[in-house]
Specification:
Elements: H1 2-29, H2 52-59, E1 69-73, H3 76-81, H4 84-87, E2 95-98, H5 106-117, H6 122-126, E3 128-134, H7 142-145, H8 157-164, E4 168-171, E5 174-177, H9 184-190, H10 192-204, H11 206-213, H12 221-225, H13 231-244, H14 254-268, E6 272-277, H15 282-285, H16 288-304, E7 310-314, H17 335-352
Parallel strand pairs: 1-2, 1-3, 3-6, 6-7
Antiparallel strand pairs: 4-5
Helix pairs in contact: 1-10, 2-8, 5-14
Protein name: SGNH/GDSL hydrolase family protein
Organism: Dongia sedimenti
Keywords: Membrane, Transmembrane, Transmembrane helix
């Protein structure tokens, strides 16, 4: 028995030494990612984290420090429409962080807020202004959005990341945290070899994967600015979103209820909220789904009117059809105008609250 225990101890010690060596080599090859604010999930592919959900989940420790912050939550049109380098100069009194995740719905945005508030101090929560970018595509119900063959039923993209590294485990009532949030940075150190190996493999095989998958190269900003969306392509976009809602022609109320809970969570924590109804081309705005969404939105705004610290920005009809690269994403030449509309609204709200205007003309 003693011999078995001794051999087990030697084995464990050897594995620990080997892991320390591997960790050291990985740190030499790819240093730990460290960023003090100014987070932007759009830059994920240029970092160790590579994907937007992973960047968000593992990089949020940067929000521990107390600061006056503007934090954007939404999907890909919020991410692409409000670029950090364009919005930040317009709100110099606030540290801008665009933590939107492509393909999100409101449920995943509420998860994102819960993950942010977990690393913030009470004062940090009070000094945060949240912009929630919405349009009808974010109101796909969970049963349709997160029930696909590539995931555990109900798991959002953020759920996949939280379970991937053992920071959480599945419980009967939902995710159960294993790694204390105070030890998030230590957890990042422990998984650094895995992250490094994953990134190196992807970097080395990028050419091979492009040839095998035969994907089209990403459009340049110049090409995006020249995009014209013919009627047949418009019809495909409309059909895609109808399919996302299971063929329904009306938006269910489910995600509006989640949005109410999200706004109330932020307000209860002492923060402020700006919900921005994002621009759409007229051919998408005229669909039955968007008309249903607008009706629900009108009723929702009436119910939210009395909430102090809440405001709403109507941008849905602000820009013309020729300003879109597809059904919801703005052409690069117009994103500065998106940011200016938003920054002006934020400035107006801070002025009402007796705070120095944040916007720079």
């Amino acid at each position: 028995m003693k011999w078995i225990l001794k051999q087990t101890a030697w084995l464990l010690a050897s594995l620990a030494v080997l892991y320390i060596v591997i960790l050291g080599v990985s740190l030499l090859l790819v240093p730990m990612h460290h960023q003090e604010g100014g987070l932007e999930t759009r830059q994920a592919s240029k970092t160790l984290y590579m994907t937007e959900p992973k960047y968000f989940f593992l990089n949020r420790a940067s929000l521990r420090t107390d600061a006056d912050r503007l934090i954007l939550l939404g999907a890909s049109n919020t991410l692409g429409g409000f670029r950090l380098d364009e919005l930040q100069p317009l709100v110099p009194n606030l540290q801008v962080n665009n933590l939107s995740i492509s393909g999100a719905n409101i449920t995943e945005m509420r998860q994102a807020y819960d993950m942010i508030r977990a690393v913030q101090s009470p004062d940090g929560k009070k000094r945060s202004t949240y912009v929630i970018g919405v349009w009808y595509g974010l109101f796909v119900p969970d049963s349709l959005k997160w029930n696909t063959p590539d995931r555990h039923a109900g798991d959002t993209d953020l759920d996949i990341e939280r379970f991937r590294y053992g920071f959480y485990r599945r419980g009967a009532d939902g995710p159960v945290q294993i790694l204390p949030i105070e030890d998030l940075e230590f957890g990042l150190l422990l998984i650094h070899p895995y992250l490094t190996f994953d990134k190196l493999v992807r970097d080395v095989t990028v050419g091979l994967r492009a040839r095998l998958l035969k994907g089209k190269p990403a459009l340049t900003d110049h090409e995006r600015n020249q995009t014209v969306i013919p009627p047949e392509q418009q019809a495909k976009y409309i059909a895609f979103w109808e399919a996302q809602f299971g063929g329904a022609t009306a938006v269910p109320k489910e995600q509006f209820e989640v949005l109410t809970a999200l706004v109330d969570d932020i307000l209860d924590d002492g923060g402020t909220v700006v919900v921005a109804d994002l621009p759409l081309p007229t051919w998408l705005a005229g669909t039955a789904l968007n008309q249903s969404y607008n009706a629900l939105k009108t009723d929702w705004l009436k119910a939210m009117a009395s909430r102090k610290g809440f405001s709403f920005v109507e941008m849905q009809s602000t820009f013309g059809d020729d300003e879109f690269v597809d059904e919801v994403h703005p052409k690069p030449r117009i994103t500065k105008e998106w940011s200016h509309v938003l920054a002006t609204s934020i400035s107006n709200e801070t002025a009402k609250a007796g705070v120095a205007p944040a916007v720079t003309p």
